[in-house]
Design brief:
About 45% of the residues lie in helices and about 15% in strands.
Length: about 300
């Protein structure tokens, strides 16, 4: 993976989980030297205790640990906080294990022994993604509050339209759009409901519905769907999907391995809801696009 410029904010909180004390100490001190605030945990259960009382930008965990390994810890973390940024470390790398980790929602996969520069670059990418998601969540909440206030004004209004305000009866989706709210892909966000063919999309909730059946998506699955929706009419390469949805850069071959399990999970959920999984089309060797009937 390509290294990004490293300029960590001193307030970034990192949780380092490793049952081997020397490894944990070395990593923690290295990260502290470049400005991170580091908390250590010697096991998965200890890490979960820290996570109940603290919010971390990144969790960096070894995979091979007794009692609770890193993959099981990842499952626990994602069950409680789907947006959590988790980086797995292993000295026993294999493509299947890397793909499985990414399928479960790991942000990155670090192979030991690697250089500390590479590790710091991975942490920097994780912090950037964590803060981007946090900013977006705050924006969602702000937009939700603004739209709620507009709806309250509309409900209470009995006179002529107020200049600069939407007319009584204006759909909430129109309110959100007229207010200029859009995400970085020019798709309306919280406060509006979007239609993608047979799918109703609820921004900010990581949910879609089809035939009145709710489908819960992970943040990555949801963002992939919205990005493809915003760029319908063309095939989106996998490296672009990784860059825009996961916030880091890889070559196309590696990007396919990163994106494929998320697309597979998304198709499976569509099929379970009675929808055609081929709503998302794989153009072999090029990338993915939405089926023409979703435009």
């Amino acid at each position: 993976m390509h290294a990004l410029s490293q300029s960590p904010a001193t307030s970034a909180q990192i949780l380092v989980v490793d049952d081997e004390g020397p490894n944990r100490y070395s990593i923690s001190k290295n990260l502290e030297r470049v400005g991170y605030s580091v908390t250590e945990a010697a096991s998965g259960p200890e890490a979960l205790e820290h996570l109940t009382t603290n919010e971390f930008d990144v969790v960096l965990t070894d995979i091979k640990m007794p009692d609770m390994d890193g993959v099981e810890l990842l499952r626990h973390i994602k069950a409680e906080s789907p947006e959590a940024v988790v980086i797995l470390m292993t000295g026993y790398a294999s493509l299947p294990s890397a793909v499985e980790a990414l399928r479960l929602g790991a942000h990155d996969y670090f192979i030991k022994p690697g250089s500390m520069n590479d590790l710091r670059a991975a942490i920097a990418r994780g912090v950037e993604r964590s803060r981007n998601m946090r900013r977006r969540r705050m924006l969602f909440e702000s937009i939700r509050s603004d739209v709620f206030e507009l709806d309250q004004i509309e409900s209470a209004s009995t006179g002529p339209a107020i200049p600069g305000m939407p007319a009584v009866g204006t759909p909430t989706s129109a309110v959100a759009t007229s207010a200029g709210y859009a995400n970085r892909w020019d798709v309306p966000e919280v406060g509006s409901v979007m239609q993608l063919g047979p799918l109703t999309v609820y921004p900010g909730r990581y949910q879609i519905s089809a035939d009145d059946q709710q489908i819960d998506l992970t943040p990555t699955e949801f963002d992939l769907l919205l990005y493809l929706g915003a760029h319908s009419g063309r095939v989106v390469p996998c490296h672009e999907l990784v860059r825009e949805v996961r916030s880091y850069s890889v070559d196309e071959a590696e990007a396919r391995e990163v994106i494929r399990p998320h697309i597979s999970n998304l198709r499976r959920k569509l099929k379970q809801a009675g929808q055609n999984p081929d709503l998302i089309v794989n153009v072999r060797g090029v990338g993915y696009r939405l089926n023409d009937r979703v435009r």
